[in-house]
Design brief:
Elements lengths: L7 E5 L6 H14 L4 E5 L5 H11 L8 H25 L3 E5 L2 H11 L4 H12 L6 E6 L2 H9 L12 H17 L4 E5 L4 H21 L1
Parallel strand pairs: 1-3, 1-4, 2-3, 4-5
Helix pairs in contact: 1-8, 2-3, 3-5, 4-7
This protein binds ligand Z5A.
Ligand Z5A binds next to helix 1, helix 4, helix 6 and helix 8.
Length: 214
């Protein structure tokens, strides 16, 4: 993927942080620039990966082991990367994904305590050299995130975790951003939606202009 011409953007954060809402801000911005793109999500993005998503989020038919959960996440990602993300990028279409592998480091690694080395092994097997060009991390305290998520109704298997779980997930995202500032940008998602949007547009202007105008 070294010579890919299109750009790969991912949106991350704990639950209820506003990822879906703010992906709309990215697409509106790209529309003004005449950029072709696709919007996708993880787990999911293809028919098979969406079926795996259902298995991951639904009420437990039986307790799910940490390894099973990890392998399901990467099985969905393998299908997503090979059949949707890479072909789109190679065709010159930008890809905007609601979550990607940072979510695995945050939820399975930080949240569940899965060994980081194991996640890295699967990452290199599934993604090869594919890495997002820009990752937006919407940061929010877990209590507010949970309140926002609860407004949507029934909680899924992840959303029923304790606040401490989401505090570890949040911290892992912050650690990821600290370790990789060239790729990652943190936006304070506790602000009014209009302020979050204008912060996001500033980031897009700063980070993407070279790519768009160049
Ligand atoms: N998962 C995993 O474990 N490992 C992995 O590798 C991957 C995923 C890829 C599903 O993800 C689960 O998969 C996820 C982690 C796990 N579980 N959790 N929790 P998901 O992304 O589909 O699910 P989600 O995190 O619950 O996201 P969501 O439902 O799409 O929420 P969101 O996109 O972040 O939020 P939203 O729908 O845009 O906004 C929520 C509400 O807040 C809505 O009413 C908005 O109008 C409101 N909102 C948004 N922004 C604001 C502001 N600024 N102020 C006030 N209100 C706001």
């Amino acid at each position: 993927m070294q010579n890919k011409r299109a750009y790969f953007i991912t949106m991350e954060g704990i639950e209820g942080v506003g990822k879906s809402t703010n992906i709309g801000t990215i697409t509106e911005y790209l529309d003004t620039k005449g950029i072709e793109y696709i919007v996708t999500r993880e787990p999911g993005g293809t028919r098979l990966a969406e079926k795996i998503r259902e298995l991951l989020l639904e009420d437990e038919v039986e307790p799910v082991t940490e390894l099973t959960e990890l392998l399901l996440v990467f099985a969905a990602r393998a299908q997503h990367v090979e059949t949707l993300i890479k072909p789109a990028l190679m065709a010159g279409k930008w890809v905007i994904s609601d979550r990607f592998t940072d979510a695995t480091f945050a939820y399975q690694g930080g949240g569940r305590g899965v060994d980081r080395g194991t996640i890295k092994q699967l990452q290199s097997m599934v993604q090869d050299e594919l890495t997002p060009d820009l990752t937006i991390i919407l940061d929010l305290d877990p209590q507010t995130g949970m309140q926002r998520a609860m407004k949507r109704g029934k909680l899924d298997r992840f959303e029923r975790e304790e606040l401490e779980f989401f505090a570890r997930v949040r911290q892992t995202y912050l650690d990821i951003a600290m370790a990789d500032p060239r790729r990652c940008v943190i936006i304070d998602a506790s602000q009014k939606l209009e302020t979050v949007k204008s912060d996001l547009i500033e980031v897009l202007k700063q980070r993407l202009n070279i790519k768009i105008d160049g």
